[in-house]
């Protein structure tokens, strides 16, 4: 039985009203899309600018090892996409999308600003047979950084071997050989600045929970039910995301290298504040969109929500601390042993997803009609496959960034070189170039009745992300004497991944607004981002499999790191192809459950 609101029951946000500016369009779409496009562009400018720096910041400034750095990165991005589950619900029931977006923008901007206070660079050291040695970092004649163990008056260059042992070289000759397991690297870090960094990441996670699902929900409000412009509108909106990330992923890493990490993070904070200003000072253009429910007491409840949200920041900080101190599962522990060894954040994510998805389906079975339940079931199946896609795609900020730093020749035609952080701009650049084409393609195919169904688009995306990794694996066979591949192999991966992304992400956002029961569309948008959250955590775990030994943020053997990346990329590619084909086979029953939604 479907419950209907009474005078005493909470009012539901209206997302089906007729667009009051239906005659005023922007590229054939409601004119409000332009402001939301720009708002999201600047918000993503801040987020992706910060994200381009984060893994390198953790490995080069704080000098965490690969496992710790990719674990923190995966945990951060997981929380970034977990919080929308709550933020979407709170906006639906209390805040309204517009106020939630503004609050999230302020909190995120403060988080980026706090990241500017990173303190002094960590000091590396090495422990050999339980004895601690100072490690110095110097540049050789070629201008490359080299790590040395300081043993009295001698400086011995550190060189890792294929078998896991380490040679200490004196004038190019091995003076001492350290067997595998007897050489450990570490770094002395200022505990205060580590705490500041984790608090900043916690604030960004909380703020994003209020911003991310609700700006997308506001875009969905621009279109009436059945409006065929919705998919292309979300694709245009998605292009704004990547337009912002394109410039930030060029500028923020450049500032970080040229002037210091703080300058890169400060630019991200400025971009975020511009995003807030566009919503705060909208000149009435967004009146009637994203408004809070009209019922007594809502205003007081909003301030309580803001206060509680800020109190969540210390909780997230504790989750990060727990994540940093978690141990790897013992060999042969099996699946249950792996789950038991997960830090609290991992258990929270898996628990939320494994319990939340069935709970929502049970609710939709009880509260919705048969058609609504089947549409929700189709959405949930696609959400599960969405986890797989983003697990692989989100290697961009972790293992692929480290691959760019270590095993990629970053020279562009021999004219100039870019930084490892700047390689992430390839994805944004290709999205900006491909998004208009894909928008036109979907519209043209729809007019002819040939547009692929949403499940087919998802299956193509999975196979596409596998193809991108296989291209890079192919390129690894042509690595130079320094075990580095040409930058164009990495660019080719991002080109394929960008095309795959356009088959799933903007289509997925649109799919949620079309398949969800109307009164929980904000919550379902949160579930969509929850699936990405789980994927982000998995992405961090996969990146840890590609971890290699480092000293002071630098690998000790580039041949070993190249092989580690190739092995991981090959394995995940095979898995993605198998699952992509499975989804293509499931597209027929899913299409039936979707009841004509395209």
Work out the helicity level: 55-70%
CATH domain fold name of the largest domain: Growth Hormone, Chain: A
Shape: globular
Cα separation of the termini = 27 Å
Give the CATH level 1 class of the largest domain.
Mainly Alpha
Radius of gyration equals 25 Å
Which structural class matches the secondary elements? alpha+beta
Biggest β-sheet strands, sense, barrel:
7 strands, antiparallel
How are the strands of the largest sheet arranged? 8-7-6-5-4-3-9
**Low confidence ranges:** 1-22
Quick tags:
alpha+beta, seven-stranded antiparallel sheet, globular, 65% helix, disordered N terminus, two-stranded antiparallel ribbon
Describe the structure.
- The structure is a single chain.
- With about 600 residues, this protein is of the alpha+beta class.
- It has two domains: about 25-120 and about 190-215 and about 225-330 and about 340-595, MFS general substrate transporter like domains (Growth Hormone, Chain: A, Up-down Bundle), CATH 1.20.1250.20; about 125-190, no CATH class.
- It has 17 helices and 15 strands.
- Helix 4 runs antiparallel to helix 5 (about 190-220) and helix 5 crosses helix 8 (about 300-325).
- It is globular and about 75 Å long.
- It starts with about 25 loop residues before the first strand and ends in a 5-residue tail after the last helix.
- The model is unreliable at about 1-20 (pLDDT under 50).
């Amino acid at each position: 039985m479907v419950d209907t609101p009474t005078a005493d029951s909470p009012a539901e946000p209206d997302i089906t009203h007729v667009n009051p500016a239906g005659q005023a369009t922007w590229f054939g779409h409601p004119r409000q899309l332009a402001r939301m496009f720009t708002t999201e562009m600047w918000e993503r400018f801040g987020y992706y600018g910060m994200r381009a720096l984060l893994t390198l910041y953790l490995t080069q400034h704080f000098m965490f090892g690969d496992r710790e750095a990719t674990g923190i990165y995966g945990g951060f991005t997981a929380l970034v996409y977990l919080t929308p589950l709550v933020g979407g619900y709170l906006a639906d029931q209390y805040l309204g999308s517009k106020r939630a977006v503004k609050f999230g923008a302020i909190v995120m901007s403060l988080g980026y600003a706090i990241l500017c206070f990173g303190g002094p660079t960590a000091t590396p050291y090495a422990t050999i047979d339980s004895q601690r040695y100072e490690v110095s970092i110097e540049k050789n004649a070629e201008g490359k950084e080299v790590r040395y163990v300081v043993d009295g008056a001698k400086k011995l260059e550190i060189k890792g071997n294929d078998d896991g042992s380490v040679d200490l070289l004196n004038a190019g000759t091995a003076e001492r050989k350290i067997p595998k397991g007897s050489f450990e690297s570490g770094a002395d870090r200022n505990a205060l600045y580590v705490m500041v960094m984790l608090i900043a990441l916690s604030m960004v996670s909380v703020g994003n929970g209020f911003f991310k699902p609700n700006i997308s929900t506001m875009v969905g409000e621009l279109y009436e039910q059945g409006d065929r412009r919705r998919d292309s509108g979300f694709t245009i909106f998605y292009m704004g995301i990547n337009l912002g990330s394109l410039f930030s992923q060029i500028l923020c890493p450049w500032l970080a290298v040229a002037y210091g990490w703080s300058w890169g993070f400060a630019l991200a904070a400025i971009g975020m504040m511009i995003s807030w200003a566009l919503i705060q000072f909208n000149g009435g253009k967004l009146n009637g969109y994203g408004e809070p429910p009209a019922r007594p007491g809502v205003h007081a409840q909003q301030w309580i929500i803001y206060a509680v949200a800020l109190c969540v920041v210390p909780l997230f900080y504790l989750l990060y601390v727990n994540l940093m101190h978690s141990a790897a599962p013992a060999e042969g522990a099996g699946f249950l042993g792996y789950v038991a060894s997960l830090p609290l954040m991992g258990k929270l994510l898996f628990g939320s997803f494994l319990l939340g998805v069935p709970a929502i389906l049970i609710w939709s079975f009880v509260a919705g009609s048969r058609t609504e339940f089947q549409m929700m079931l189709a959405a949930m199946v696609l959400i599960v496959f969405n986890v797989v896609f983003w697990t692989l795609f989100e290697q961009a900020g972790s293992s692929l960034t480290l691959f760019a730093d270590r095993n990629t020749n970053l020279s562009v035609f021999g004219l100039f070189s870019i930084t490892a952080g700047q390689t992430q701009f390839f994805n944004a650049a290709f999205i900006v170039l491909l998004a208009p084409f894909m928008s036109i393609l979907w519209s043209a195919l729809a007019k002819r009745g040939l547009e692929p169904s949403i499940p087919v688009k998802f299956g193509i995306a999975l196979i596409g992300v596998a193809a991108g990794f296989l291209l890079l694996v192919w390129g690894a066979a042509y690595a130079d004497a320094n075990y580095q591949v040409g930058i164009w192999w990495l660019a080719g991966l991002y080109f394929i991944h960008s095309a795959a992304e356009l088959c799933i992400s903007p289509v997925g956002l649109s799919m949620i607004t079309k398949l969800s029961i109307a009164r929980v569309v904000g919550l379902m948008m949160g579930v969509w981002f929850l699936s990405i959250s789980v994927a982000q955590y998995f992405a961090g775990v996969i990146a840890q499999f590609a971890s290699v030994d480092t000293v002071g943020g630098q690998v000790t053997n580039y041949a070993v790191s190249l092989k580690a990346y190739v092995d991981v990329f090959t394995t995940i590619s095979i898995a993605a192809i198998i699952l992509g084909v499975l989804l293509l086979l499931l597209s027929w029953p899913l299409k039936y459950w979707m009841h004509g939604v395209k």
